[in-house]
Amino acid sequence: MDTRDSNSLLEEDVCGHIFTVSAAMVGVCMTVIGILRLVITIQKINTLADDFLAVDALLFLTSCILSYLALRSRGYTRMHRIERIADGIFILGLLGMGAICVFTVYEFAVV
Asked: CA-CA distance, 105 to 67, in Å (whole number)?
């Protein structure tokens, strides 16, 4: 098997993983937003965590769409370029999710 063919298959595999996981992370963000809204309503407190999660969900959605476009692209270099952008946005979304978790823990610990 040619090295280029094996790299292309690996890139498609990574794109597939980014596509599925980022789509699932949009659902996770929406679920956590719903839970936070419930806690906010019951405890009558205000937090920015749900707003940050909405932005994070948009990052994951963008990553999902870009990875889908990378899977659909016909050129190897174009697929690789789009996949790298999707990967970077996905990592940014994960970092945002971690920061939101820390922010939420300390915000609710103060209340």
From this structure: 32
Buried b (16+ CB within 10 A) or exposed e, 58-90: ebbbbbbbbbbbbbebeeeeebbebbeebbebb
- pLDDT per residue, tens digit, the chain (111 aa), is 555 566 666 666 788 899 999 999 999 999 999 998 998 888 888 888 889 999 999 999 999 999 999 988 888 888 889 999 999 999 999 999 999 999 888 877 766
Q: What angle do CA 90, 26, 51 make, to 5 degrees?
A: 95
Find out whether 82 and 70 touch, Cβ atoms under 8 Å. yes
Domain residue ranges in the chain:
3-110
| Residue 49 burial (10 A CB sphere; 0-12, 13-18, 19+) | buried
Measure the CA–CA gap between 88 and 108, rounded to whole angstroms: 30
In terms of DSSP H, where are the helices of the chain? Answer: 3-43, 49-72, 76-110
